[in-house]
Design goal:
The complex is a heterotrimer of chains A (417), B (190) and C (328).
Chain A lengths: L1 E5 H11 L4 E4 L6 H13 L6 E4 L3 H13 L4 E5 L1 H6 L1 H10 L4 E6 L13 H5 L6 E4 L3 H18 L3 E6 L7 E5 L3 H7 L26 H30 L7 E4 L6 E6 L2 H14 L4 E6 L1 E3 L3 H8 L4 E6 L9 H9 L6 E6 L9 H12 L6 E3 L4 H13 L6 H9 L8
Parallel strand pairs in A: 2-3, 2-4, 4-5, 5-7, 6-7, 10-11, 10-13, 13-14, 14-15
Antiparallel strand pairs in A: 1-8, 6-12, 9-11
Helix pairs in contact in A: 1-2, 1-7, 3-5, 7-9, 10-13, 11-12, 14-15
Chain B lengths: L1 E8 L4 H14 L3 E6 L9 E9 L14 E4 L19 E5 L19 E4 L1 H8 L6 H12 L4 H11 L2 H26 L1
Parallel strand pairs in B: 1-4, 4-5, 5-6
Antiparallel strand pairs in B: 1-3, 2-3
Chain C lengths: L48 H17 L3 E5 L3 H6 L11 E3 L5 H14 L6 E7 H6 L2 H9 L5 E6 L40 H7 L4 E6 L3 H12 L5 E6 L3 H4 L6 H11 L5 E4 L2 E5 L8 H5 L14 H17 L5
Parallel strand pairs in C: 1-2, 1-3, 3-4, 4-6, 5-6
Antiparallel strand pairs in C: 5-7, 7-8
Helix pairs in contact in C: 1-7, 3-5
The chains are: A alpha/beta (417), B alpha/beta (190), C alpha/beta (328).
The complex binds thiamine diphosphate, iron/sulfur cluster and magnesium ion (MG).
Thiamine diphosphate sits at the interface of chains C and A.
Chain lengths: 417, 190, 328
């Protein structure tokens, strides 16, 4: 049914339709509305046969999911930002064990300085943990990806993170089609675990693996991701047949056929980018965009196919590898091995800085003239940064960066006289 | 696309207001998007929520920086926050206040006179709902001032958002405000 | 002295700050010379018990140490509302790291002060109930067990308020939160769950453990002052109502806190090395209804079936027996 509904609630409805058997959660903005809605559905009986557990930390949340999944229950949790980092050890563990847990990330920046707003630093920090990572462009896709995620996770026995832009999607109230339960049941068969703790057939899970086999285990983890490259489009196709709309897949091009400049991005910013592409096209610019949905596995061949006929690529990144650039750019660059075209990285929207059409248009126009640096920062206040750098050169002042910036803003830190 | 920005204080329900507006547009078969300004503000702090209404699918995800209409739930914000930032020259402004725009010190604003209106939304809320929650009143006034949303769709949206007596009272407040704002607009143009 | 001197806005009467009392009997808060460690202008809700509790406690600690206090703060309402960048309400050296590590960061500061031979500077760690009883529990227990020279202050508002009122292990039975909604057959937080952190702290045999309430200002200040006179790990659990999360009137914060004590739901006591050494007896015992009915988080308990209220009364009565709160 088509509903006007908050993104988080729609995601919760999608999760509930997947009939999870264990849901565990620890609150963190902006993920809270998803798990609050689920707790209510379990209470009212709308979501039957499900244990909802309020745990004491994110580390416990994912650990509970690990236990539940190993005992054969379809398991779900959600987190963001500090919470994802706090569970990091368990994230790698679930990846290494190959447990088909689905976890929503309400993407948010990481501190210090503490910041509750959206960027992709959190999921990017855990990109190499052996999880599949899918990034939703819209709330409709966020809901749909969760249904696809359970299918993919269980078919491969591999955990999946569905990354949803915090606030921008989680707190947006818009129209979303909530699928029918019967159709979801037909699409997603009951969980049939590959490994399960069972008294009738005892297995040991989690033994120490030495140098003799560790490399092979890691390779086989990689192999699952290679398999996912094949399965993600298959599942998306099946989904589209069942539900009558396109969601998911590896990557989605937009107006790239004759594009000289292609913008590559993850997540919700693709909506704004498309609007900019349309406007610039009206003005005669040959520009298009590419929305990467699957970041792990990274679809090297698909990205290459979309970019190889262009003259330049602008990678718009909502996360920042301090000291280097952006993680999406790394993948894009790899996909273009042997092809000579100009590549620019634009770091944008960190800590929730609004990414506006106006700024994007400006930077894309500059890209077309090849006036960009390799690494660019959208709407960075260069003046304030320059003043701070100057001060640091003149006086050695240790301490946190944010607090030092106060001097530029003209505020004096408190002290006891 | 029609873009609305609602200014209020934490606890006054700006987000609910934006959502009800979006819901009303949805009920008219249009596309809409409501979202908060994403702060970590507590009760009483200045807050903002946004709403976009369009006949096409809305892909844009930037905050509303160039609104077509402003709803101001709390007149004490007038001189604290840069409320009018980005408002289009033909934009609408609806202020919750018993004072006239002149008395509020807003006479010099460069907007069409019949687009700027103040009316006592809180008083109307107190009369119909019994609590100082100006949301539904302001939205009723919005329907009259801009004609962007029909009052019946708004009432249906209120009915979906609330239930029982609360719904009825809020509908009454919206209807009364719709009438009052409609009348004062005619008075202004007569 | 503070940067901004304290102002009393109500003048022309002696009621403000117990100024009818003898000087030596007045609270730290009544003193115009108090440090006002958590200055006005912060962003807490009206009637926030946590804002009061923190100022009371830190001001008292400042007086006890001649203004030589460094504090750490777990993530939570107190941290967020006191430091909206680029402003801060703190007039003491203060640091926030992450949610779960306030106790360990404090241990680190204490260790550094020791190496630097600044024995006069004392360290306080602060956190909400979630940051203390849940996610910060391992770090806290470690700090206790090593008997590090830190005073830990837990501001207990019985849920994760900063993220929008979710259940913590300090949420009382029956209470409605965003993750224990008042729907279904057992509405609100489940009975038989939760932990009592003061008792767990006592089990570490640390030199000093106390409970305090924003409604008992003299007692709260005395306990903080006493704690500052002791070396080693110390813990004070302060009861701080949250009008937003509890659905109580901002003007009832102190009343609600007082009723929690007078019903027996929040016993006030002190313990040294794991042994209870003092308690505040209840003068006029109040039935729990009086406390519950002021808060919307308990509204669903007042339906036809009142059995949950009876169960909460049992908890209060058990506390009174267990801690010997009945006035002899
Ligand atoms: C690792 C981690 N998980 C979750 C959060 C989100 N978070 C920040 S504050 C908070 C609630 C704090 O509750 P409490 O400690 O009780 O303090 P209160 O806000 O109630 O005073 C939560 C869940 C976080 N910052 N870091
Ligand atoms: S939510 Fe509660 S604890 Fe937080 S500032 Fe408001 S009253 Fe204080
Ligand atoms: Mg709390």
């Amino acid at each position: 049914m088509l509903q006007q509904i908050e993104g988080s609630r729609a995601i919760a409805c999608g999760i509930a339709l997947c009939r999870p058997e264990v849901v565990c959660a620890y609150p963190i903005t902006p993920q809270t509305h998803i798990v609050e809605a689920l707790s209510e559905m379990v209470r009212t009986g709308e979501l039957e046969n499900c244990e909802y557990i309020n745990v004491e930390s994110e580390f416990a949340a994912l650990s509970v999911a690990i236990g539940a999944s190993s005992a054969g229950a379809r398991s779900y949790t959600a987190t963001a930002s500090q919470g994802l980092l706090y569970m990091a050890e368990a994230v790698y563990n679930a990846g290494g064990l190959g447990l088909p847990i689905v976890m929503t990330i309400g993407n948010r920046a990481i501190g210090a300085p503490i910041n509750i707003w959206n960027d992709h630093s959190d999921s990017m920090a855990l990109r190499d943990a052996g999880w599949i990572q899918l990034y939703a462009e819209t709330n409709q896709e966020a809901l749909d990806l969760h249904i696809q995620a359970f299918k993919l996770a269980e078919a491969l026995s591999c955990p999946v993170m569905v990354c949803v832009d915090g606030f921008i999607l989680t707190h947006a109230y818009e129209q979303i089609e909530i699928p029918e339960a019967g159709k979801v049941d037909a699409f997603l068969p009951p969980f049939d675990p590959v490994q399960v703790l069972d008294c009738m057939d005892p297995v040991s899970i989690g033994a120490m693996v030495g140098p003799e086999a560790f490399m092979e285990v890691r390779y086989l983890q990689h192999y699952k991701q290679l398999r996912a490259l094949e399965m993600i489009p298959e599942i998306a196709k099946e989904f589209s047949e069942q539900f009558g709309r396109d969601s998911g897949g590896l990557a989605r091009p937009y107006r790239i056929a004759d594009a000289e400049t292609v913008v590559v991005a993850l997540g919700s910013v693709n909506g704004t980018v498309k609007d900019v592409v349309d406007e610039m096209r009206e003005e005669g610019h040959l520009i298009g965009s590419l929305c990467v949905v699957s970041f792990r596995p990274f679809p090297l061949m698909e990205v290459r196919a979309c970019l190889e006929n262009s003259r330049r690529v602008v990678v718009l990144e909502k996360s920042f590898s301090v000291g280097l650039g952006g993680p999406l750019s790394d993948g894009v660059r790899k996909s273009l091995s042997g092809i000579a075209l100009r590549g620019y990285t634009v770091i944008a929207g960190l800590g929730g800085r609004a990414i506006t059409k106006k700024s994007l248009k400006g930077i894309f126009a500059k890209a077309e003239m090849d006036e960009l640096e390799l690494l660019n920062f959208l709407d960075l206040d260069h003046e304030i940064v320059a003043r701070q750098i100057m001060r640091e050169r003149e006086t050695r002042r240790s301490g946190p960066i944010a607090e030092n910036l106060l001097k530029s803003i003209g505020t004096v830190a408190s002290r006891i006289a | 696309m029609f873009q609305v920005r609602i200014h209020g204080r934490g606890g006054q329900g700006v987000v609910t207001g934006a959502e009800m507006l979006a819901l009303a547009a949805f009920l008219e078969g249009r596309y809409s998007q409501a979202f908060p300004s994403f702060g970590s503000e507590r009760m009483g702090a200045p807050v903002v929520a946004f709403c976009r209404i369009s006949d096409q699918e809305i892909r844009l995800r930037e905050p509303v920086t160039m609104p077509d209409a402003l709803l101001i739930q709390d007149p004490t914000l007038l001189h604290q926050v840069d409320l009018f930032s980005g408002l289009s020259k033909s934009g609408f402004i609806l202020i919750n206040s018993g004072k006239s725009p002149d008395e509020l010190g807003l006479s010099g604003l460069p907007y069409p006179e019949d687009h700027l209106l103040a009316f006592p939304a809180t008083e109307i809320a107190l009369k119909h709902i019994g609590r100082p929650l100006p949301n539904s009143s302001l939205l009723g006034g919005f329907c009259a001032l801009t004609g962007e949303i029909g009052i019946d769709s708004l009432k249906e949206a209120i009915g979906r958002r609330f239930s029982g007596k609360t719904a009825k009272d809020n509908m009454a407040a919206a209807e009364a405000s719709f009438t009052i704002v409609g009348e004062s607009m005619h008075a202004a143009t007569d | 002295m503070s940067l901004q001197p304290v102002k009393f806005y109500q003048t022309g009467t002696f009621t403000v700050g117990n100024r009818l009392l003898d000087e030596s009997l007045r609270t730290v808060q009544a003193n115009m010379q108090r440090t006002n460690s958590l200055n006005s202008g912060h962003r807490a809700c009206q009637g926030c018990g946590e804002a009061l509790g923190a100022r009371y406690a830190i001001d008292a600690a400042m007086r006890a140490t001649k203004n030589r206090v460094i504090a750490t703060n777990a993530t939570g309402c107190l941290e967020v509302f006191s430091t909206p960048y680029p402003e801060t309400s703190w007039q003491i050296p203060w640091m926030h790291s992450v949610f779960g590590n306030a106790a360990s960061v404090a241990t680190g500061i204490a260790a550094a002060l020791k190496v630097k031979k600044k024995s006069d500077v004392r360290v306080i760690a602060q956190g909400g109930d979630g940051g203390t009883t849940d996610i910060g529990f391992a770090c806290l227990s470690g700090m206790f067990e090593r008997n590090d020279d830190v005073l830990y202050l837990c501001y207990d508002n019985e849920a994760y308020m900063n993220t929008g009122v979710q259940r913590s292990s300090a949420t009382p039975p029956g209470a409605r939160t965003a993750t224990t909604p008042a729907v279904g057959i057992h509405p609100g937080n489940a009975f038989g769950t939760g932990k009592n952190l003061p008792l767990i702290a006592m089990a570490h045999q640390i030199p000093y453990v106390a409970t305090a309430s924003v409604a008992n200002l003299h007692d709260l200040e005395a306990k903080v002052e006493k704690a500052m006179g002791i070396c080693g790990a110390r813990y004070i659990h302060i009861y701080v109502p949250c009008p937003l999360g509890w659905g109580s009137s901002p003007s009832d914060t102190i009343k609600v806190a007082r009723l929690a004590v007078e019903t027996g739901l929040f016993p006030l006591f002190e313990a040294e090395h794991g042994e209870i050494v003092s308690r505040i007896p209840i003068r006029n015992k109040v039935p729990v209804e009086e406390y519950l009915k002021l808060q919307k988080r308990f509204a669903h308990l007042f339906g036809e079936d009142r059995s949950a209220i009876a169960m909460i009364q049992e908890i209060a009565d058990r506390n009174i027996r267990k801690f010997g709160l009945e006035e002899a």
